[in-house]
Specification:
The structure holds two protein chains of two kinds. In chain A, 41% of the residues lie in helices and 18% in strands. Chain A contains five helices and five strands. Chain A has helices at residues 21-32, 46-56, 70-83, 102-108, 120-130, and strands spanning 8-12, 36-39, 60-65, 90-95, 112-114. The chains are: A alpha/beta, B alpha/beta.
Chain lengths: 135, 351
């Protein structure tokens, strides 16, 4: 309740797939780890996601995709953030993303990619690191 | 964006363009994170533009507050295309982990890319009144960026969370059919702070019965008020409860809506606009008075924060607390020790 508070995060599902089980699971994991998580539901556009992130002043955006359109949608989100002068917002993501695409995503500026099978602990640990949450 | 201080952020939020939204968003974070910043902002905001109406929407979880909020935004945007509208949506923080899932926006995503709509989700962060510390600061920032109307949606509440009445010009209690019988409407608490009552999901069974019970409740309230008025003023007895004999929308108190089906929203906004016309000057004065109460809350929150810190970490206090546990110390002695040590720590840290 008091003491250092963890940052606010946005968990979003861009694109057309409606498989929100992963996004909801991660949202709950982060909630239970003490983050304030804004969840925006399925089938959102990169524009909606970035506008929301800026109004909500979040420290990070987590994108969940199972559609295969991750390269396009991650890139678009990062471009929009850049255009708004919001490059300081950390972008991470997960879903069914082929391992070969991960270095590509990282080169676009995606800070972390959590593929199926990643433990809840690992996700929290990595985000604490990325967002400089004091231990 | 570099780390900017409050006055720079205020200047930034007044500009136009995407950076203004970032500045406003950051300002909202400052005033909800730190009581000190809230106090600074409230001290400098008196000359800022303010919303015409700050409407509180409260009610139990699942009564449709978020969807209703979404539809009200749509109605206001349609009627006043040039005007901005703000939404503050509060959801509960976990008392166990401090974390929160803020999900009210899911119902409002049609407005996400509308630059005239500013939506901010807040976690209650330990406050039990249905709101979060700093809401008043967020309202002022929304005024600063030009919002004509600000809607505040509380945490889904039960019977006693009435804090919204201290923050809104008007409080709408949102109810849905199937939440109990007329005895529930006899109880003190939440229903006492309702200026307006909205029966949402009115397309469902039970809406007519709830409407009858609410009418009876409002008539009782009026009757009691009438009985109490020493000089026997005969106005306002039983007839202005719905749209009233003169059909004056500024007197209407009871509304049937189905937010999902877009029913009854226009009538509700008619009434809100009528009330705003009549009362906005008075509301401005009331808001100034509320700033004092908000600052008191901020002071108390800061005292609580520091005292908890002392209680948990100061060795002398912890020792006394153990003696209290063992029955060897009166409570008052521990309180004195906490206060003394808290003040001691504060003075030593400011030196």
């Amino acid at each position: 309740m008091f003491g250092p508070r963890k940052p606010r995060l946005l968990i979003a599902k861009p694109g057309l797939d409606g498989h929100d089980r992963g996004a909801k699971y991660v949202a709950q994991v982060l909630r239970d780890a003490g983050f304030e998580v804004i969840y925006t539901g399925i089938r959102r556009t990169p524009e909606q996601i970035v506008a929301t992130a800026i109004q909500e002043d979040v420290a990070g955006i987590g994108l969940s995709l199972l559609s295969g359109a991750h390269l396009l949608l991650f890139r678009r989100v990062i471009e929009l953030l850049h255009a708004q002068g919001a490059d300081d917002i950390v972008v991470f993501g997960g879903g069914t993303i082929p391992p070969k695409d991960i270095p590509l995503l990282e080169s676009l500026g995606v800070a972390a990619v959590f593929t199926p099978g990643t433990s809840a602990e690992r996700i929290v640990e990595r985000l604490d690191e990325l967002l400089c949450v004091p231990a | 964006m570099p780390r900017l201080e409050l006055p720079e952020l205020v200047r930034g939020a007044r500009q136009s363009g995407p950076l203004a939204v970032r500045c406003a968003g950051r300002l909202m974070s400052l005033v909800t994170d730190e009581p000190q910043r809230l106090a600074e902002l409230l001290a400098m905001c008196r000359e800022w533009p303010q919303p015409r109406l700050v409407l509180g929407l409260t009610g139990s979880p699942g009564s449709g507050k978020s969807t209703l909020t979404d539809r009200l935004v749509l109605e206001y945007r349609t009627r006043f295309p040039a005007d901005k509208i703000g939404v503050i949506a509060v959801d509960p923080s976990s008392p166990f982990t401090g974390g929160a899932l803020l999900g009210d926006r899911v119902r409002m995503m049609q407005h996400a890319t509308d630059p005239q709509v500013f939506i901010r989700s807040l976690a209650s962060r330990g406050r039990l009144g249905g709101l979060a510390l700093g809401v008043k600061g967020v309202v002022r920032v929304m005024g600063l960026v030009g919002c004509r109307v600000v809607l505040i949606e509380t945490v889904g509440v039960g019977q006693s969370e009435v804090e919204i009445a201290q923050h809104a010009d008007l409080t709408a209690v949102v109810l849905a059919p199937g939440q109990g019988d007329g005895i529930q409407l006899l109880k003190a608490g939440l229903l006492e702070v309702g200026d307006l009552f909205v029966i949402n999901k009115a397309d469902r069974d039970g809406a007519a019965a709830l409407q009858a019970q609410l009418l009876a409740m409002l008539q009782r309230v009026d009757l009691v008020r009438h009985d109490r008025s020493a000089n026997g003023v005969t106005t306002q007895v039983c007839h202005d409860v719905t749209t009233g004999p003169e059909s004056d929308p500024s007197h209407a108190r009871l509304f049937l809506t189905s937010a999902r089906e877009h029913l009854g929203i226009a009538e509700l906004v008619d009434a809100l606009e009528a009330r705003t016309e009549v009362a906005q000057e008075r509301w401005r004065t009331e808001r100034e008075e509320q700033i004092e109460a908000e600052l008191q809350s901020a002071v108390l929150a800061e005292i609580e924060r520091r005292a908890i810190c002392t209680l948990r970490t100061n060795a002398a206090v912890v020792e006394r607390f153990d003696r209290l546990l063992g029955g060897a110390e009166p409570l008052a002695a521990v309180v004195d020790e906490v206060l003394r040590r808290t003040i001691g720590d504060a003075t030593s840290s400011t030196k």
